[in-house]
Amino acid sequence: MTYENSLEFALRLDEKDHLKNYRSQFHIPQHNGKDCVYFTGNSLGLQPKTTKKIIEEELSGWATLGVEGHFHNNKRPWFYYHQFSKQSLAQLLGAKPVEVVSMNNLTSNLHLMLASFYRPTGKRCKILIEGGAFPSDQYAVESQIKNHGYDWNETLIEVTPRTGEYTLRTEDIIKAIEAHKDDLALVLLGGVQYFTGQLFDFKTITKAAHKAGAFTGFDLAHAIGNVPMQLHDDNVDFAVWCSYKYLNSGPGGVSGVFIHEKHGLNPDTPRLAGWWGHDESERFKMEKGFKPMPGADGWQLSNVNILSSAAHLASLEIFDEVGIESLSQKSKQLTGFLEFLLNSIPKEKLEIITPENPAERGCQLSILVHHNGKVVFDQLSEQGVITDWREPHIPGTGGVIRVAPVPLYNTYSDVYHFYDLVRKALQ
Ligand SMILES: *Cc1c(COP(=O)(O)O)cnc(C)c1O
């Protein structure tokens, strides 16, 4: 598509937008009585207007039924709650319903997955991650390595971009995997890297990891609801995510896991177990001896957090209706427009560090501002434009503003307003 640098052009695209009616299904935060330009859906997605109603339905079930709600709650008996999100999640991930379950929170789930898929033996003990991975993932991996009695500095392999580059080349990841073919236990990467917005090539990386004798896992915190995926076909071993970013399921919202059926349907796959993962028909017999439910369900520990999961369902309903492919189509155009506008600003002032290739990113662009980035960020905030600021890694160099134009509720004119303010702030 050919873009034009004008507000009129942005308004024309808004008019033609096939998803334009979805914005009104969300609460848009306000600034001085006007809608904010909300570009932090990668951090906390906006609240669907249907969320309140579904939570109130569960509250009402609790008020009128008490414990009986587990089996007799009106539309959604709580005992079966983990089933209600399965189909939608499978759709978003390119998975089979048996391969996914929503539960717990992200970092807890990452530990559960590492308990199953990081089982170092002798020399085969190393974990490969991307340099600058999200801190929680780094700490999880570090502590797992220590728990197994290994020296984490020697056991953790971090792949970093080439000098002068900001993102990783798939070939460099593959090379690192091959170099460690005798001692690699696990490759763990962000699906979409939280800082750079880079989308990794799941299929190629997984294939190389398997060839080297290692498992692969992806942290999809920034990928789910943002980009279409094919986890099953790509043969990924496991994945985890949270639902409060692009999935709009509320602060601290319920997380979820994907476990490929080749592991999930095998009752002997090692795991840390709890009663909610035990064979459903015998769960209340309260007997000794763990018999896992088939698939990802067999990794559940606890009974479901109903209020948080209700919010999750309200949001997933919107994704079911729109479809991730259709979202992705708008996403590419919307982010493409932002990229086009920002590219008209001289490179000495700012640079986009997210990959240029739309197949290697989701909606987020990470913008390196060489000088006075914080001033630009503060000016944006004062004008009701909500973005995210990351301090420079090296003092005196540029900091990064991350912006996520979310196709469900952001507009082409949001993008134009953002660009216009950045341009003026940099003058
Ligand atoms: C957001 C995010 C988290 C957050 O972890 P919680 O356990 O949900 O607090 C972890 N990892 C990545 C990559 C993230 O982007």
Describe the structure.
With 427 residues, the protein is an alpha/beta fold. Helix 9 links the parallel strand 7 (184-190) and strand 8 (215-219). The strands form four sheets. Strands 4-10-9-8-7-5-6 form a seven-stranded mixed sheet, sandwiched between helices. A four-stranded antiparallel sheet has the order 11-12-15-14, with helices on one face. The protein has helices at 7-16, 51-65, 69-72, 86-93, 106-117, 135-147, 152-155, 170-179, 202-211, 261-264, 306-322, 324-342, 373-382, 412-426; strands spanning 30-31, 34-35, 37-38, 100-102, 126-130, 156-159, 184-190, 215-219, 238-241, 256-259, 350-352, 365-369, 385-386, 388-390, 399-403. Helix 5 packs parallel to helix 6 (135-147) and helix 13 crosses helix 14. The model has no long low-confidence stretch (mean pLDDT 96). The protein contains 14 helices and 15 strands. It folds into two domains: 7-47 and 323-426, Aspartate Aminotransferase, domain 1 (Alpha-Beta Complex); 54-321, Aspartate Aminotransferase, domain 2. The protein is globular and about 70 Å long. The site of pyridoxal-5'-phosphate has 12 residues, from helix 5 and helix 6.
